[in-house]
Structures are given as structure tokens and as C-alpha cells.
Amino acid sequence: MAKLYIHRQTQEILSYPDPQRWGESEFIDLIEEVKARAEAEPDMFVVIDPPDPRDAYHIMEDFIFTVEDEQLRDRLLEALNSKKPFRYFRATVEDSPLRDAWYDFKDARMKIWLLDMLARVWE
After folding, report:
1. Which one, of 95, 93, 21, 30, lies nearest residue 60 by Cα?
2. pLDDT per residue over 25-76, tens digit each?
3. Per the structure, how many domains does the chain have?
4. Less packed terminus of the chain by CB within 10 Å, N or C?
5. Domain span at residue 29?
6. What is the pTM of this model?
7. pLDDT in tens, 75-85
8. Are 59 and 109 in contact (CB under 8 A)?
9. Is 104 in the same domain as 67?
């Protein structure tokens, strides 16, 4: 997920892909454009940082407890307990019949997380 900039008056959203995940060189123009725009009006933009990895981990963990297939649930738990939980969880879920269910679950949880972040900003 990228860092989001939300304009306080117009609610316009500016964002760019996470350079650590996608490589900065591919999106350098977009990154510079978004940062320049936000820096030009620093008091007008609210910055929403990506979720903490712990939050993402808990979302995966919560999803596992919705899985009825005991063998798949065990494989997903094993993936979460590995040295690279995000990578192995994604690989396991991608190769399962629950791929779409996972993305729906994650999208729903990310919307809740974002709404919570926005509520904190505009309190």
C-alpha cells in the first residue's frame, strides 16, 4: 500500500506505490509529482501512512480463523509462523480455492482500517 495524501478541503486523494515494494525508479516521476504537490500546500494535506506490518499480520491471522478447510487452515497457520510470513501466506492463498475470498476479506478490512484512520484525522 502507498502513502496517501488527502486534501482537507476538496478530499482529493494523491498517492503513489510503495517504492520499497515496487522500486522507486519505475515511479520516480509520479512520486516527485505527488510529493511536490503535497509540499506546496503542507497545511492542506493529511498524510495517511500505510498500515503497520502488525496490522497486516492480524488481518491474515483473522482470515485464517474463517477458513473451514482444516488442512488449508493448518497450511496458512504454518505460513504465518514461517520466517517470511507475508510471502508464504500469499503463496499459499494464491494456490488455493480461497484466493478471491482472501482478497475480498482483505479489502473489507482495509476499508475499515482506512475509515478508522480518517476518523482520527478529522476528529
Report:
1. 93
2. 677 888 889 889 999 998 999 888 888 889 989 999 999 999 999 999 999 9
3. 2
4. C
5. 3-48
6. 0.74
7. 999 999 999 99
8. yes
9. yes
Q: How far apart are CA 47 and CA 39, in angstroms?
A: 11
Which H or E run contains 115?
Answer: helix 99-121
Helix (H, G, I), strand (E, B) or coil at 45: strand
Q: Are residues 92 and 108 in the same domain?
A: yes
| Helix, strand, or coil (residue 48) | strand
Cell (9 digits) for 55: 496490522
Phi, psi dihedrals of residue 6, rounded to the nearest 5°: -120, 125
Tell me the three cell numbers of residue 89.
501466506
Instruction: Dihedral sign for Cα 65, 69, 70, 75, please.
Output: negative
What is the DSSP secondary structure assignment for residue 83, as one 8-state letter?
Answer: S
Name residues whose C-beta falls within 8 Å of residue 113's C-beta, 6 or more positions apart in sequence.
51, 55
